Amino acid sequence: MEPLSELGDGKYLLVRTFKRDGSAVGTPVWILRDGDRLVFWTAAVAGKVKRIRNNPRVEVAACDIRGVPSGPVYPGTARILPKGEAGDSLAKIRKKYGLVGWITMIGSRLRRGADGSAAIAVTLD
Predict the structure, then answer these.
(1) Where's the Pyridoxamine 5'-phosphate oxidase N-terminal domain (predicted)?
(2) Tens digits of per-residue pLDDT, 79-101?
(3) What is the CATH number of the domain that holds 19?
């Protein structure tokens, strides 16, 4: 199976972002394959967003809900999507994860407001 399909078809993706000192921080996220990229959603103020702004290099792997990798690690480049581009991806994530996805994203919007979420696109190197 090709890496994009393997990762995008899974339920969770381990995303490792890198601090300024080079140390990695891994976080499991919901994932969606969107063409030739992977997209995930997170709080706009999350540490991973700050780290991606400073260093777009990431490593990704299929994982379980706790972030335990279940496959090979792939290097990639992350990009914070502009709001217009993010809306379509967030709608697709809600669809993929069904009622749980819808409830989670509505709850996030109520807590953080319309600008409180960010969509991140990852292209594999």
Answers:
(1) 17-98
(2) 999 887 776 777 778 788 878 77
(3) 2.30.110.10
